[in-house]
Amino acid sequence: MKQIYDVIIIGSGPAGLSAGLYAGRAKMKALMIEKGQHGGQIMSTNSIENYPGSIAEESGESLTARMVEQCKTFGLEIVQDTVLKVQLEGAVKTVECENEVYETKTIIIATGTNTKNIGCVGEEEFVGRGISYCATCDAAFFSGLPVYVIGGGDSAIEEAIYLTKFAREVTVIHRREGFRANKASLDKARENPNIKWLLNRKVVEIKGDGLVESIVVEDVRDGSREEIHASQEDGTMGIFAFIGLIPQTELFKGLLDMDEQGYIISDDKMQTSVEGVFVAGDCRQKLLRQVVTAVSDGAIATVAAEKYIEETNN
Ligand SMILES: Cc1cc2nc3c(=O)[nH]c(=O)nc-3n(C[C@H](O)[C@H](O)[C@H](O)COP(=O)(O)OP(=O)(O)OC[C@H]3O[C@@H](n4cnc5c(N)ncnc54)[C@H](O)[C@@H]3O)c2cc1C
User: Fold this and answer.
1) Which of 18, 26, 287, 292 is the 20 to 30 A CA-CA neighbour of 112?
2) Do 106 and 186 reside in the same domain of the chain?
3) How remote is the CA of residue 2 from the centroid of ligand 1, in Å?
4) Three-point CA angle 202, 205, 209, nearest 5°
């Protein structure tokens, strides 16, 4: 007979790993399904300074390694697969993956978000040839070169600071005057002499022959355009885009209540609009998308799933 899990956790970012830890410790029959590498988005950050107990040297990779180890210590089952389809109604729910179909009493959705594209001419052509969405992954390729960071949120500002360790000069291009980034990071960036600012501008085109050689920026106030060229000596430049997030919730459209951006709506117990289906981390509608809130959601979702099973005698 096919095994019915108590809980299936979709995604092994901080939210999923925290849910997995709590499920393991509670001795639930739990399965975590991850389509890529463990750790989700924190794998692309080199320094996590704002997670309690983390010190400046804590990278996303080292924090993830410890979280995964802790889950395994408590016996969590983990598979690498992509969830393609779900059936959420009823006492037994189905999770259909590329390689297997699983049955479960409860589901915790912890699928996180993806970064948004710049949406300018030439972007597709130069991804991996000068355009990057991950400073930790690609900063070293731009050692001694000028780098342009697009965005005005926490990721953009924190990664701009990080990039100054490699690039000769970092210029932040932001389409507004004000920033969404936290004040502490912004102050740190403003004090950094290697960070320059191009405000009220957006990148409309990226050009080059094989590698990025120039960018065209538009002043959003009057529509005037300027082309910024790499010097003859450099020959190229780096573009790092951190302009926003897209919730990875496509799978659940029409099945769960979501806001207009596609974030899943839940109550304070992480309960979604369908009984026995919980959500945790960045893919849920919330104020703050950080590791500290993702792990909190994950813990609450597992405890709520456990309670739901008890109460429904499921
Ligand atoms: C560059 C950068 C720097 C950051 N720096 C910090 C920082 O310093 N401090 C901080 O607190 N936060 C930081 N954050 C934010 C933090 O990374 C997120 O808040 C956190 O990772 C959210 O965790 P999550 O588990 O909700 O989602 P994610 O980390 O997005 O993980 C979701 C996981 O689900 C998997 N998944 C998605 N769909 C499926 C599917 N269909 N099947 C199977 N698996 C699936 C994904 O592969 C992924 O591994 C940063 C983010 C970025 C991008």
Assistant:
1) 26
2) no
3) 31
4) 145
